[in-house]
From TrEMBL:
Family annotation (PANTHER family): UPF0768 PROTEIN YBL029C-A (PTHR28139:SF1)
Superkingdom classification of source: Eukaryota
Protein name per UniProt: Zinc-ribbon 15 domain-containing protein
Length: 72
């Protein structure tokens, strides 16, 4: 029998669709508030959250990221 265990750290992001902002970088209306958690994963299952929830703003058009509150 052979078991393959994989473990590591992964960041999980939850995108909030409540509010959309305009990106100052590419001017697209595609910036969302994202809540990110770093988790310890085992066999791709998140087991232990390693840090508090981080809030950041991410543009899904150009990839621009900001941790500041709007207005940017
Ligand atoms: Zn952008």
């Amino acid at each position: 029998m052979f078991f393959c265990f994989t473990f590591g750290f992964e960041q999980f992001k939850r995108k909030s669709r409540n509010q959309v902002y305009t990106c100052p970088h590419c001017s697209a209306q595609d910036v969302y508030l994202v809540k990110a958690n770093d988790c310890f994963t085992f066999c791709f299952i998140p087991l232990i959250p390693c840090s508090g929830t981080k809030q950041l703003y991410e543009c899904y058009t150009c990839g621009w990221v900001n941790v500041n509150q709007p207005p940017f």
